[in-house]
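Q: What does the predicted 3D structure of Peroxisomal membrane protein 4 look like?
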Amino acid sequence: MADEKLCKHKESCVKNACKGLVVSFLQSLAAKSAFHIVFQFLLKRGYKNPVQCLLKLISLDTLKFVGFASLMNFLYKATLCAMRNYRKKEDGLNHIVAGAVGGLSIAFEDQERRETWALYFFARFIDVSLRKGAKKYLPNTNVNNIEMYLFMIMIVFNVYCYGKEKDILVKSYYNFLKSVFSPSKAEQSVMNAWSAESAIRMPLNK
């Protein structure tokens, strides 16, 4: 399957794809574990019951996250090698098809996190498109500032939704923002009133 002129990895294509699967599995498991432990201790839950905190890592939620990350890497590498072997050439089409097939792995992920991942990759797509367009049509523009402007716009929108349109946010993401901002009871009461007013004025399900 391997073509020495096209595939740059030293091992066979099958071994390279399997290696990517294992490495991504370990890396995503480590990232999930680190985030879980830090987040639990920041919320002071880990101090109360550290054993229970660690046992929560062994769950279907962890398996879904790790499976999504490792499968995406595996499918991308395997499809890319297959396209190179089938078409006998290397160009952007190989990567587009491999990326599309790799994206199917999102079906393995938790339903609530699918929206978060989709929004994240969509934001990266916009970022890359703007950078490419600026480089081609506005060569004197500092493209490094595009990230900053996009981040500012997204933060404004997210904070607005957090304060007034919480029903349109993914529940896990809303809980994350709530833990970050730690609103007082008075602030939470005001935001709940805003959200209730918005739900009446602009209901999601008509």
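A (community wiki): The structure tokens above were generated from the sequence. The two ends are 54 Å apart (CA to CA). The chain has two domains: 1-109, 110-206.
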